[in-house]
Write a structure and sequence with these properties.
Structural class: alpha+beta
Order of helices and strands: HHHEEEEHHHHHH
Helix content: 55-70%
Strand order of the largest sheet: 1-2-3-4
Shape: flat
Number of helices: 9
Mean pLDDT: 92
Largest sheet: 4 strands, antiparallel
Low-confidence stretches: none
Length: 246
């Protein structure tokens, strides 16, 4: 049976490797932003590094019943980070206990959540993107029973938070009726209208009916301005410009 000292030494070495891999992924992102590598090369190398990271997190997580209180905590944190990586698009900028989690609700509505579960099994901290908060008349976190009913004695996995968020998205973005409680209905209707217009615009572009596609994209741009989503407005304005050249 491994001694506590041996476990601590082993986990320290694995944690060091985790930091190195996270640094390597961030360096790849920097190279991509500077156009020093292609998107295909970035994806390929990133996938290799992330698979290696999952393997190391799996090794750390096996020490949940061994070693000191600190090393056991490290093992639980690694287990939660590994689960997130397998279930959701997850990005680590520094610590594995403070990832960004990417969720998509529609073709155009994408959200980045920041979660801090450093003190797991205590209740994690969730930072909701402003664009999502505008959809509701109450703080979004108050809608999550996973967080509201959190018990350190019997904690759910961090992934459960994001499963619940996906369920809320489904009720809004995959339904004709806005029955989800606490919705900012005026804002929500515009979000859904934009999504439907974009779906139609993408179809018209696919069949090369460019005049109709341009008309629909123009409505998407206007709604994006109404929603103060200037990034999407600029994105689809550029697409319109490109279509007009055709």
């Amino acid at each position: 049976m491994a001694s506590a000292e041996h476990v601590s030494t082993e986990i320290s070495a694995l944690k060091k490797k985790v930091k190195e891999i996270i640094a390597d992924v961030n360096a790849l992102k920097s190279q991509l932003e500077k156009r020093e590598i292609s998107l295909e090369e970035f994806k390929s190398k990133k996938e290799i590094l992330e698979n290696e990271l999952r393997g190391i997190l799996e090794k750390i997580s096996q020490y949940k019943e061994k070693g000191t209180k600190e090393t056991k905590h490290d093992a639980f944190i690694a287990e939660e980070a590994k689960r997130l990586m397998f279930e959701f698009q997850t990005e680590f900028s520094d610590y594995i206990s403070k990832p960004k989690v990417y969720l998509s609700a529609s073709l155009i509505d994408h959200f980045i959540f920041e979660v801090d579960f450093t003190n797991y099994p205590n209740k994690p901290l969730l930072r909701t993107p402003d664009s999502l908060q505008k959809l509701f008349t109450v703080p979004f976190e108050t809608k999550l029973s996973t967080l509201n009913n959190w018990s350190p004695q019997n904690p759910p996995h961090i992934t459960e938070i994001f499963y619940e968020i996906e369920n809320i998205f489904a009720k809004i973005f995959q339904s004709e009726n806005l029955n989800e409680p606490d919705l900012n209905l005026r804002y929500a209707r515009k979000v859904l209208q934009r999504w439907k217009l974009l779906t139609a615009a993408e179809f018209e572009k696919e069949i090369q009916n460019f005049p109709k596609a341009i008309e629909l994209y123009q409505q998407v741009v206007q709604l994006s301005y109404d929603l103060e989503d200037f990034e999407q407005a600029n994105k689809y304005a550029r697409i319109i410009a490109q279509l007009k050249k055709n």
